[in-house]
Specification:
Layout lengths: L10 E5 L5 H9 L26 H6 L13 E6 L2 E10 L6 E9 L3 E5 L2 E5 L1 H15 L5 E6 L4 H9 L3 E11 L1 H7 L9 E3 L5 H11 L2 H7 L10 H14 L1 E10 L4 E11 L6 E7 L6 H12 L8 E5 L7 E6 L9
Parallel strand pairs: 4-7, 12-13
Antiparallel strand pairs: 1-2, 2-3, 3-4, 5-6, 7-14, 8-13, 8-14, 9-10, 10-11, 11-12
Length: 337
Amino acid sequence: MLTRSSRQTDLQIRPLQYRDLDAVERLCGEGELDGVSSAPCSMVQQQQPVKLSRWYGLLRSFGWLPHPWRAALSMYVAEFGHRVRGVIRVSPFNHTRSTWRVDQIAVESAIFESKEGVTTVATASDMGTALLRYCLENIWQASTWLLELDVNDQDALGLYRQNGFQLLAQMTYWSFSAQKLREVADREPDLPNLQPVSNADAQLLYQLDNMAMPPLVRQVFDRHPQDFKTSLLQSLVALVRQWVSQTETVSGYVFETQRKVAIGHFQLRLCKDGSQPHQAQLTVHPAYTWLYPELIVQMARIVQDVPEQSLQIVSADYHRSGRNSWRRWGPIGLPIR
């Protein structure tokens, strides 16, 4: 922390408490503040601003269960001048919890506090750095940290570089208007052996994920077949969430019979009431790039059955220009934990 009086106790980092919920919802609801904000690593995984006021006690009581909101409890706040001035939300990125993700950081601008004739200053960068370092030092399972940022957000890039993050890969984002989707859906896609996804296909999807990634990205993500399976509890919770949010998830993969491998996969999140864009995640084997337009046609045909909306797609090919993913190898100056 940079202060005119070097009192480190003025800025405190601690886990989220019930009394912080109103301030946290306000901070998260205000969006990106001073460029110190990060997005999740997939559109499909995007989460709405935290709304835990009603359910916080219940979630804490059942914190040992692997429910999907468990990650929402991995939140820490920066308290300065007896008020919550910043918040960080993190979550495990893979099943083994060896890689964690920074989902969001939201902080206020520079705060001044006068006490006993001494003025103490806490800037957005100070609080962002303090929140990051608290998580890096206290979440012992994490050997690698990653997050995703807009390549044009220089303030946020500077903050994360300062804390040891390095450029890892680039993601590609596309957006198709409802009119374009109607045009694309006119033809039949050339997708032999298009299969629905089930837990039995986890090994195939794991292999496709590995083949689509450069070695360094594969090492950082550290995914396993279990990351591509859905438990019964997760399935039930997903059904409830889809019913409440009026959404539906459709997924499929293309199976190559000669090599007996998956060569393309999509996961499409449909909005049934037309209140928000449809979202999709697309993975294609590097040797079968002709699948990109065919899978897009397939998704365009699927969205014709629901109210018109645009379609946002993120492609995990890591080779096109777009938004940057960043990685961190443990604390600066120390070996990987």
